[in-house]
Amino acid sequence: MTKETDESIMVPAAVIKRLPKYHRYLEELLNEGREKISSQQLGEIVGVSAPQLRQDLNYFGNFGQQGYGYNVKKLYNSLAEVMGIQQKSNMVLVGVGNIGQALVNSRDFEKRGFYLSAIFDTNPKLIGLEINGLVVKDVVELKDYIAENDINIGVITVPASSAQEVANQMIKAGIKGIWNFSPVDLKTPPNIQVENEHLTEGLLRLSFKVKEE
Amino acid sequence: MTKETDESIMVPAAVIKRLPKYHRYLEELLNEGREKISSQQLGEIVGVSAPQLRQDLNYFGNFGQQGYGYNVKKLYNSLAEVMGIQQKSNMVLVGVGNIGQALVNSRDFEKRGFYLSAIFDTNPKLIGLEINGLVVKDVVELKDYIAENDINIGVITVPASSAQEVANQMIKAGIKGIWNFSPVDLKTPPNIQVENEHLTEGLLRLSFKVKEE
DNA sequence: CCTCTTTTGTGATTTTTTTAACAATAACCG
DNA sequence: CGGTTATTGTTAAAAAAATCACAAAAGAGG
Ligand SMILES: NC(=O)c1ccc[n+]([C@@H]2O[C@H](COP(=O)([O-])OP(=O)(O)OC[C@H]3O[C@@H](n4cnc5c(N)ncnc54)[C@H](O)[C@@H]3O)[C@@H](O)[C@H]2O)c1
Ligand SMILES: NC(=O)c1ccc[n+]([C@@H]2O[C@H](COP(=O)([O-])OP(=O)(O)OC[C@H]3O[C@@H](n4cnc5c(N)ncnc54)[C@H](O)[C@@H]3O)[C@@H](O)[C@H]2O)c1
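^ thats the input. predicted complex w/ nicotinamide-adenine-dinucleotide below
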């Protein structure tokens, strides 16, 4: 009886959280020219136990080979595929303020296949301005732009008070996922994915741990 | 037999992760003038079950009152105390680039008692420049500055290749906690607390969830 | 081609986290 | 001021996650 490769089996959130880390370290190993690696060794590098690593990977397939280990390049590509970064995806960003501009200026994520396609704001002083090759558009164009340009991820970097409204517009226009930097828990239908970067929460957690020590 | 208020009892990481969220929603309730709230109601707002909320809070004390619920202001202040944001703390930031400047310009965290005391870079073009009231200092002054100015948190917003080196300097100078934005897992002694903002990992997780859907 | 070693994939076990249940306690009301 | 209701704090049960342990598979070396 062969193992079901049934997608319907729920992948635990704890596993999903670790995937990008595995990917990052595999990229490093690949750049160092490493060819193969055992779950033991990779686990030590990443900071998880070997059985956990193996169990995590086996949610998605059998990428290893007994008596050999894992081929670094193959595993790297497999994880990239699992995370959906093999085919490029297009994003829009709304809120060209402090954080928004930082993201637009660095575009760190383009090397991983996430392209910033357009950026939006309400501020007339910003609209029309060019930032790192992208001209700031008026947010009234947002809905049409998303619908017409195969955009699947929206980045929200507006003040908390406008975040939900911007999210609503994105969703109406057919966005699939939202990368949210506003300190707000967006209300979204279940088929819309949200990932929050609540930076202030991170600082408070740090404060707690410092105090506790 | 009274309950031990022993600090040595380990607070689960899962609980620590939720504390800032409780604090944020309590702040909203406080601003709305809400006086009391039950675990049931607060749980619904925050998105956790009522028993979990009660159990979480009871790691730190008995803040509620049977038959009444929780006093919003009291609970808010208690949580602030638990997280160590009653007394202000001083931070330094190293790496005045895209992300660094965004943080310096907004200084969102000052209203929660985290003061940015000085900012550092290696780039001669930046050193001496004033950004939102702070003059960029040369990073060679970092160690002395931390040691002499009661700094307990360091913010790292330098490229990945320099992050560990910057962390080492901070630690040598006596920092207690590091808020790290570089895509690197810093090697630190156990008495140094680290909180990572690995933004790219968030985007990859989002990508996974979008693809899975 | 056979033996020995390595290392995976996975079922069983343990630990951690979450949820449920309820007795104890305090507010509220007549 | 006593009964009723609301709601906590806490113990017990269930669920989820991590770890352990080992049989099965593949490579390495003679
Ligand atoms: N900057 C930080 O250090 C920091 C830290 C933690 C959290 N955040 C959060 O990130 C978000 C952005 O912060 P920031 O410092 O970049 O703010 P900002 O004020 O610099 O930028 C916000 C931008 O959004 C635009 N905007 C406002 N309403 C809009 C709307 N409805 N549609 C389109 N654009 C709109 C504004 O014109 C502005 O350009 C905030 O929610 C903030 O709480 C920021
Ligand atoms: N900007 C983004 O959108 C983004 C997204 C995800 C992650 N990050 C991470 O955040 C970090 C900073 O990104 P950024 O875009 O702000 O980079 P940046 O290049 O704009 O800024 C880095 C700054 O650090 C300074 N620096 C370099 N080495 C230093 C040293 N040893 N001591 C002191 N200063 C030093 C540089 O002079 C520069 O000013 C990087 O690690 C990046 O990977 C950034």
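The longest strand of chain B covers residues 114-121.
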